[in-house]
């Protein structure tokens, strides 16, 4: 195996994907994860074609799809059940060759962790310091240990410790004006015909993602002041959405109180000047945290991971200079696209869930109803139609639990 070493700070979706990718091209990788268990195990996620293509480049898409439900049916409605726009997942799959899928985050994390040897994961250890200078290898301090590496990947989320140290003058996360309550139902939901659905009210959105076993994730996104919490969140959701159309009451009825998660929505409204500093790269929410209104947060993190891997894979003999140059390539490729998607997500929220003025809501609804289906498909394609860069160099041939065996035939143009 290559002597090149990397430390990935953060064991979420983006960090695990980056670690998988770097191992595929011959790097020795250690992932440092603060949490002893994932704190989003009760949530679900939709993966668009760009996310699935990234997972395919990392050789884990088949396992993810096997644990997912394809999203073909559904759409957007008003609280009384009137349709605003129908979802045509089959048309998107025909255009892109890749389906949209829904999967519990816990299952996605499990699949990604299974692609890494357990000894490469350090769980329950918080990074307390990161240092970098032009003339030395970056250092990461965690749990009383300081480790040097040729590369550090900061995938430690929206409240990134690494980002704060690299960009101390950056204002950090900003409250986006919305709060999200969500859960996975405790049991299958009868009459859940749609694979994916959204309902827009005034300053409120309710959506669900169906899973293969008949259960579903639901989320309620509401305009609210930051920090507002309810003594009984599930009771409040049942009261708030009692008159909204089926199957919303049924989804809430199939939920246990202890399974409801509540998080305020924050974003990096002020863009970073760079996603890299020296031999440290930021990815995912650490680099470009965005609002959830396009469902692209995880997909953009996966794009980051594959693009970073590809840039480093083209470095035949990694040195401090060539690694820094590869990170500059990563930054040039990812920053414009990720920031554009973040801006579009913010706009989608303002024109969708966050809109409260009755006249504006009526005009928006009328405009959506009059939009041809082909135009709706093209809107989704603008974000989902992404082709992964090729991963050159050593390609790992290993399955979970097997020894890493690099194949040394370099891909050529």
Q: What is the name of the CATH topology of the domain at 5-70 and 99-172 and 268-352 and 386-407?
A: FAD/NAD(P)-binding domain
Note poorly predicted spans.
396-413
Strand order of the largest sheet: 6-5-14-15-16-13-17
Give the strand tally. Answer: 21
Mean pLDDT: 91
Shape designation: globular
Provide the CATH top-level class of the domain at 5-70 and 99-172 and 268-352 and 386-407.
Alpha Beta
- Radius of gyration over C-alpha positions, nearest whole angstrom: 21 Å
Distance, first to last CA: 24 Å
Strand proportion, as a percent range, falls in: 15-25%
Main sheet properties? 7 strands, mixed
Count, helices: 13
What's the CATH H-level homologous superfamily of the domain at 5-70 and 99-172 and 268-352 and 386-407? FAD/NAD(P)-binding domain
Q: What is the share of helical residues? A: 25-40%
Kindly name the structural category. Answer: alpha+beta
* Proper CATH architecture of the domain at 5-70 and 99-172 and 268-352 and 386-407: 3-Layer(bba) Sandwich
Description:
The protein is α+β, with helices and mostly antiparallel strands and 413 residues long. The chain has a domain at 5-70 and 99-172 and 268-352 and 386-407: 3-Layer(bba) Sandwich (FAD/NAD(P)-binding domain). The protein has helices at 13-24, 49-57, 61-66, 89-96, 105-114, 161-166, 233-240, 248-253, 285-288, 297-313, 320-351, 358-370, 373-384; strands at residues 5-9, 28-33, 44-47, 69-70, 74-77, 83-86, 101-104, 121-123, 127-133, 136-142, 145-148, 151-154, 174-184, 196-200, 204-210, 216-223, 261-267, 276-277, 280-282, 395-396, 406-407. Residues 396-413 have low confidence and may be disordered.
């Amino acid at each position: 195996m290559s002597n090149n070493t990397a430390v990935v700070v953060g064991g979420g979706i983006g960090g695990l994907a980056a670690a998988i990718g770097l191992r595929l091209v011959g790097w020795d990788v250690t992932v440092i994860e603060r949490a002893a268990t994932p704190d989003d195990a009760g949530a679900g996620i939709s993966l668009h074609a760009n996310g699935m293509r990234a997972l395919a480049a990392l050789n884990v898409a088949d396992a993810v799809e096997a644990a997912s439900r394809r999203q073909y049916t559904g759409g957007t409605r008003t609280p009384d059940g009137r349709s605003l726009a129908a979802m045509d997942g089959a048309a998107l799959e025909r255009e892109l060759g890749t389906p949209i899928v829904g999967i519990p985050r816990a299952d996605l994390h499990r699949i990604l962790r299974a692609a890494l040897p357990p000894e490469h994961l350090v769980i329950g250890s918080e990074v307390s310091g990161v240092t970098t200078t032009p003339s030395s290898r970056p250092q990461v301090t965690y749990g009383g240990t300081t480790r040097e590496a040729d590369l550090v990947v900061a995938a430690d989320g929206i409240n990134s410790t690494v980002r704060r140290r690299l960009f101390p003058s950056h204002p950090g996360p900003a409250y986006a004006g919305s709060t999200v309550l969500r859960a996975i139902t405790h049991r299958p939901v009868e009459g859940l015909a749609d694979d994916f659905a959204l309902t827009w009210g005034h300053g409120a959105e309710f959506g669900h993602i169906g899973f293969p076993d008949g259960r579903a994730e639901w989320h309620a996104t509401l305009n609210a002041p930051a920090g507002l919490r309810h003594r009984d969140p599930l009771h409040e959701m049942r009261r708030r959405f009692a008159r909204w159309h089926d199957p919303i009451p049924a989804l809430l009825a199939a939920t246990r109180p202890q399974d409801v998660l509540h998080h305020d929505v924050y974003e990096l409204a002020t863009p970073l000047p760079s996603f890299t500093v020296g031999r440290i790269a930021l990815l995912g929410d650490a680099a470009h945290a965005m609002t959830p209104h396009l469902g692209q947060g995880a997909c953009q993190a996966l794009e980051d991971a594959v693009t970073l891997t590809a840039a480093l894979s083209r470095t035949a003999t990694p040195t401090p200079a060539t690694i820094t140059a590869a990170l500059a390539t990563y930054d040039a490729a990812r920053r414009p696209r990720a920031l554009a998607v973040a801006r579009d997500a913010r706009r989608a929220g303002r024109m969708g869930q966050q809109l409260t003025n009755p006249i504006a809501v009526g005009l928006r609804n009328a405009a959506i109803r009059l939009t041809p289906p082909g135009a709706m498909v093209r809107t989704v394609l603008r974000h989902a139609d992404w082709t992964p860069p090729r991963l050159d160099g050593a390609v790992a041939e290993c399955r979970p639990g097997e020894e890493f065996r690099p194949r040394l035939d370099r891909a050529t143009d």
